Amino acid sequence: MESYDALLASIAPVAGQNTRTILDPATGAVVGQAPVHTLEDLEQAIASAAEAQPAWAAAGHDARSAALLRAADAVERNAEELAQLLSREQGKPLNGPNARFEVGACAAWLRTAATTVLEPETVVDDGTTRAELHYRPIGVVGAIGPWNWPMMITIWQIAPALRMGNTAVVKPSKMTPLSVLALIKVLNEELPEGILHVVAGDRHVGARLAEHPAIGKVMFTGSTAAGREIIRSSADTVKRLTLELGGNDAGIVLPDANPQSIAQDLFWGAFINTGQTCAALKRLYVHDSIYDAVCTELTAVAKAMPMGIGLDENNVLGPLQNKAQYDVVATLVEAARDSGARILTGGNPDPEQPGYFYPATLIADIDNDNPLVTEEQFGPALPIIRYSTVDDAVQMANALDVGLGASVWSTDPAAARDVAARLQAGTVWINKHGAVDPRVPFGGAKQSGYGLEFGTEGLKALGIPQVING
After folding, report:
1. Dist CA 134 CA 467 (whole Å)
2. Active-site residue among 211, 278, 376, 453?
3. 244 catalytic per annotation
4. All domains in the chain, ordered by first residue
């Protein structure tokens, strides 16, 4: 285990490198200097990964799984230092479903990828024909990650890639490079040399990674607009893609739901990571009969949640990670206010407070075509929309061109499942929202992307299917 200062020093730029100053979004203090890698650095990383890949593939599943388990141990040995760096750079508090939670999830996803069974499948065996379906390594995988869950999503991308015999080159967000650099440094304490690289460059480095002929697959989590660019960049080399793109997840509260019992889970479904989560609850549809009660209970929960600097052990909500995202949230809330929507709590950030803090905000009596409903806010502002019939709620929930997740809230499991089956989303949760599980496939519908992550299906997505017929 390294001290925090030693961990930060271990990823410091070398002499002569271009650097980027990383600031704490809660205080404006300098967190550290991140290297700005070049296209030449990327070429070297890809060449090294390509050279190491055949031996890593030949090592077999058992050896690769053992290496990933050791890597998970290394994450846990350095968990507190990684969490402190993540909190400083991304802004999320140490406690609650935030920095310590994220680092713990890294270890959990590594272990699940290492131990999930993927056996060859006998497709036909009728006495004259025997056909088996196997999954072979793709080669070198490019992993391009976001700034909201930089460590955890990096593991989502690289753990199954490595398990399946691929090597990987990671391109972190320029907003949160230190967290990913530190995570990769810790993983590489236990992984064979050359199989995992990180290149913390600018946008042109990510574009080259997406188009590079030696990259066999790209894993990307980010905006739908950026996903479209990756699709275009990857076309000439017909790369395999897994894209987890923007979401504007809907939740439907059925009239039989108990407002008091669901309020806490509704809150965290929307405000996990201060709302900066692709699969967070972004718009909430509540039946007329319990609308006021849900608003009251949810407001009480929101007002009780402490927001502040992430290193303060008392806080569970932090700042927006960057000024651009702060401005998106502030603009959408002000437009909602100007339209006549009712602000239940929040909506008035303190202009004297340092950092990109926007208070947890609930907006009631808002039209379904309001920009706060139709555009992904990706922050701590939840619109609550009234509906009269379930058919209306389903229609409104399905009206947008995204469909990452959705949820239904009810005391009647059968009724909830009936509504869930009508929603156009990759995952529909019942009486919870955004509860991803490393054993359960996860992916989007419509323009929220394509491809599955996690579990057996996630492993298959990092392999090339091969049928042996004879």
Report:
1. 6
2. 278
3. yes
4. 4-245+448-469 (3.40.605.10), 249-437 (3.40.309.10)
